[in-house]
Specification:
Layout lengths: L20 E2 L6 E5 L28 H13 L4 E5 L9 H11 L2 E5 L6 H13 L4 E6 L5 H8 L3 H14 L5 E5 L12 H11 L7 E4 L33 E5 L2 E3 L11 E3 L10 E2 L3 H9 L7
Parallel strand pairs: 2-3, 2-8, 3-4, 4-5, 5-6, 6-7
Antiparallel strand pairs: 1-11, 8-9, 9-10
């Protein structure tokens, strides 16, 4: 990490007072924000303004992650996710993935740029030895190299595509995750899902897996204001369909309700233990509107 501090970009966070809430139902998914906002890329749309400079949200120590996994295991967790920042910058990521795979099916979200042949070999070995499934989600925002790298940085496209190929060659079928940030540049052509699916099929991937996410006005795209949910918006709506009813996120400083709001004071539910975070989560942020309207989830499904 360099010594320059990135701007936290949390200045537009609204207060949580009087916001509608989501009751906690169960712990299905544990998210571990393993590298905080430390990343080797600096994407223009990053939801938590990650980058290579001194992160505003610090990586968490391995013992913190392991303690969370032990507690989650006791509480019956069904899935574990590692995210950041870029998880493969963490010196103990492989050991932590191995620990997680003893507990539950595990997914790691990555930009793919640090997955070379040696890392792909290690991940394949982990998957073969594990009792549960290991999923790798590789971010790619466009099938066109120029459009993708305009968002994610020069060279990111080729490295991510290479990672997808290396993983596929070893029997790991990555989930390619894309946002809709450049979809308007393809008006009149094939739909976004079909375009990505065709691109991956062209790489020789027989059964392409694609997850498409909306763009959030958050992180580097944060702006002041924005509509917030009200009790009237939620009349007749099943709040248990929102992921914050059954997910918790361990990040520097505590436990949070939502992966994309980790580190923001309004989303913090506990200073440490998971069970202490099992309480109502406020739908206080404009990003909650997107989840409510689109049914979006950060999980694989």
């Amino acid at each position: 990490m360099s010594s320059r501090m990135s701007l936290p970009l949390v200045v537009h966070e609204p207060g949580a007072g009087h916001a509608p809430v989501v009751p906690f139902l169960r712990l299905s998914a544990l998210w571990i924000q393993i590298t905080g906002t430390w990343c080797n890329l600096e994407c223009t749309h990053c939801i938590n303004a990650s980058g290579p400079d001194e992160p505003w949200l610090k990586p968490i120590a391995p013992e913190v992650a392991r303690a969370a996994m032990r507690e989650a295991d006791e509480l019956g967790v069904k899935e574990i996710y590692f995210t950041g920042g870029e998880p493969f910058l963490h010196g103990e990521i492989l050991a932590l993935l191995a620990d997680a795979l003893v507990v539950a099916p595990t997914t790691v979200l990555t930009n793919g740029t640090l997955i070379d042949e040696a890392m792909a070999d290690r991940l394949a070995a982990l998957a073969r030895a594990a009792a549960y499934s290991l999923e790798i989600r590789v971010s790619l925002d466009d099938t066109d190299p120029e459009k993708n790298d305009r968002v994610r940085g020069a060279g990111a496209f080729n490295k991510a595509v290479r990672a997808i190929q290396l993983l596929h060659e070893r029997g790991l079928l990555p989930i390619v995750t894309a946002t809709e940030i450049t979809s308007h540049e393809h008006a009149g052509g094939r739909g976004m899902y079909e375009r990505f699916r065709g691109f991956l099929a062209g790489l020789g991937i027989e059964k392409p897996r694609v997850k498409i996410l909306p763009v959030f006005a958050l992180g580097r795209l944060s702006r002041e204001g924005g509509r917030r949910l009200t009790e009237e918006d939620l009349e007749g709506f099943e709040r248990g369909t929102l992921q914050c009813s059954e997910s918790r996120v361990v990040a520097d400083g505590g436990v949070y309700a939502c992966p994309i709001l980790a580190g923001l004071p309004g989303a913090k539910l506990s200073d440490g233990g998971l069970e202490a975070s099992f309480r109502d989560a406020p739908l206080y942020h404009p990003s909650c509107v997107t989840c409510h309207e689109t049914g979006m989830t950060c999980k694989n499904g």
